[in-house]
Amino acid sequence: MKIAILGAGVAGLTAATLLSRAGRDITLYDQFIAPAPVGSGLVVQPVGLKVLREIGAADLALTYGAPGYRMEGFEVGRGRKILNVSYGPDGGANFGLGIHRASLFDTLLKTAQSHGVQIISSHCVTGTSFENGKRHVMFEAQPPSAPYDLVIDTLGAGSPLSPLRAKPLEYGAIWGTVDWPTSSVQKYDQLSQRYNRARNMIGILPIGTLPNDPIRKATIFWSLPVADYQTWRDAPLESWKADAVQLWPEMEPFLAQIDQHDDMTMARYSHGTLRKPYGDGIVHIGDAAHRASPQLGQGANMALLDAYALATCLDRFDLQPALAAYTKSRRLHVESYQMMSKLFTPMYQSNSQVLPFLRDWLLAPASFLPPMPSILRTLVRGSLVNPHRGLD
Ligand SMILES: Cc1cc2nc3c(=O)[nH]c(=O)nc-3n(C[C@H](O)[C@H](O)[C@H](O)COP(=O)(O)OP(=O)(O)OC[C@H]3O[C@@H](n4cnc5c(N)ncnc54)[C@H](O)[C@@H]3O)c2cc1C
Q1: Over the stretch 23-67, which tens digit does the pLDDT of each residue have?
Q2: What count of other Cβ atoms lies within 10 Å of the Cβ of residue 325?
Q3: Residues having CB within 6 Å of any atom of ligand 1
Q4: By alpha-carbon position, which residue is closest to atom 41 of ligand 1?
Q5: Which of 5, 114, 206, 260 is most exposed by smallest CB count within 10 Å?
Q6: Which structural domain, as residue segments, surrounds residue 66?
């Protein structure tokens, strides 16, 4: 079986490693000229770490990343604790690994290369065609590919191949990466957040180190309506920093490292899931198949879990039954997290007055009472439901 994997991101590199390891004939394409992932930090949750362990990438990821044992958030008005989720005991086996995308990419790339995977770069995918039971890939300014039995679309949220029409969300966020200030009183083993109703969500995520840079980093983020981004860019940077420091004084040494608007990158979010993520000789995985805001920090994990499930099904079944089995094994997990993300996101990022009120006075107090802490722990670990139903 000849397989083309389109996109050398989280899902693509993981699928390439697993399929190469299983002796498959794969070709991996990406549009980049040289591998250079953009973006900031993210959290690889325990379910995602399990996949990294499975492909032999966990040790390197752990040398880069920063284990986080808790997520803590306070509202800025009265200083009430709103979020208090623990992964398990400090220093224990369960944690979310804060990591920069460049470090995760380096980890996945080196792992894939150790299995002989090579990336065909400078190939921007524009479409595919299906003829005589085979799929050809079309590229910008390049001849079409040879025929493939299977094309795996891992082109991410902007995939031109995916039929998914996700709903854009009103709020996005600006994200930046800074050195961890030596003067900071913030804890390095947790994600910390502050909320001003649902209008502002500010966060500090420890993410460990970058390839070739031993200084510990943090990702900082500030939620922002997409429509207000240009206004934010047009306003003096100092007035935004002053607003942020007024809401959360401990942000000052982090923000002091932001010198220009371009140091912060705007991320836009959307929500949506493909009900049937496959067709004749093609399957969509990762963000190409389902998109959500990063409120629950699950996107990269979903990409890792998808890749693992797909490779397992291709190992066990013929092609079309494998795609159906893959879809079935992932459906409940994907849909549960999509639903939770849809439910939680507006409580933290919206113009609603009612939702943050409910969050602060009803849900937050309830979340501290048993059995909620253990349910929330399972939720953030990524294992609220079995991520690979029927494959264990
Ligand atoms: C600001 C932000 C914060 C996030 N935080 C978290 C978090 O805390 N935890 C978490 O788990 N997830 C998080 N995510 C989500 C996570 O980054 C994504 O879900 C994950 O990267 C999806 O992986 P993927 O392999 O599907 O796509 P990607 O990793 O985006 O890879 C897509 C690849 O396809 C290539 N490509 C795209 N278009 C083409 C084309 N036309 N032709 C050829 N190549 C192409 C790209 O170059 C890229 O290499 C966050 C996302 C954002 C934006």
Answers
A1: 999 999 999 998 776 778 999 999 999 999 999 999 999 999 999
A2: 19
A3: 7-12, 30-32, 42-43, 124-125, 154-156, 158, 160, 175, 267, 286-288, 294, 297-301, 303
A4: 125
A5: 260
A6: 2-167+270-381
